[in-house]
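Q: Could you fold this chain for me?
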Amino acid sequence: MQPGDLVSGKYRLLRQLGRGGMGSVWAARNELTDRDFAIKFLLPELAQNRDALHRFFLEARACGQIKHPAVVAVYDMGQAEDGTPYLVMELMEGEGLDHRLERSGVFRPGEAAAFVAFIARGLEEAHIRGLVHRDLKPGNVFFAIDDRGEVVPKVLDFGVSKATALADPKFVRTNTGAVLGSPAYMSPEQARGDEDIDGRSDVWSLGVILYETLTGKTPFDGANYNQLMVSILMDGHRPAIELNPAIGKELSDLVELALEKDRDKRIRTARELAERLESIATRITGTPYPGFTGRARTMPPPPKPMPTPTETWVEVPAARRRTSPAVWLSGGVFVAAIVGMGGLAVLRTRPPLAEVASRSVSVMTDGRTRLVRELERLKEGDEPKAPPKPEGSTDDKAIDPNELPTATPTYQPRGPSSPTKKRDVHDGVTSPGF
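A: Sure. Below is the predicted structure, expressed as structure tokens.
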């Protein structure tokens, strides 16, 4: 295979992503849909082996049946022009757990419990369908970064998976008695070559992965393959809490239960392991376990965790807030100030009533005094003197009756008869205000 090769008339190879014990993985683009995928090719020497070829296509069918975000999705399968079998899978960005351990060392206890619980949920879906992975190791766990920037652990490489009695009969075709898998993560029954391998073998492998992520070491080791197998079957191991006291006794005890050599004493199912790890992660972090969703970048935690399927959020109305007395006091002062300013403005716009009234009383008093004096003179018989007449006045001339006006005089009633006297035109009130 070379970059630029066209597979099945539609997949253009872009670059090689990796190479494993059963094949190589390439990034490719579907030229019909212009979408990128990962294509896994079986090694040519294994393609001639019927058992290896069967396990390869079993991986495609197994992953096609498992609908869980913790398991890599398989979209297509086929054979290249030279007869090499291949699988078309989702193309992921991120890093493997093995590289993560080399780069940053051990995980925080809550983080390790959360991501192993998430993987256990994905394996539970496989076990329900009668499929056992049998090759769980850090190299087959990938931390993928999705479009939202969240980290999602995914299980890769079901190439050595085994179909149990629960699976469809057409899948039950395995090389029984063969020792398959990565030695350091094998269960004791797998190291012995037992035929009746079930989901508890994957639980052991998850226990080894959890132990390594918490301590930085695997629980069993040996100078060679044979010594390692003997150690897994016969030797004990140091409890994880002795290597890392920060993990706590509860999590350390759970790791010990997952690493029980007698599988009848081991944690029975991946579901039970997931539930217990979720409970521990909740107590460590202080938040409900929502499923593992880490962030690819350093970001503050969300203000409120997402609800689990058994959690219900109830909207609680906020309590009524009582108004502070200081607020009422300041409001009252403000209103009083507005009212006072308005009243002052009204008073300033009104006319000076007191001044006008005092002037009117003074004028009336003066007029009354003059009227009393005039009446007293009239009683004494003193007739007021007429003012001198100017020369040329027409008052002494005789009046011609023919020159009198012809208009009908208007009747005006008179009061009691009194001696004919001329009255002063200035008698009475002389104030110009009346």
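A (continued): The CA atoms of residues 46 and 52 lie 6 Å apart.
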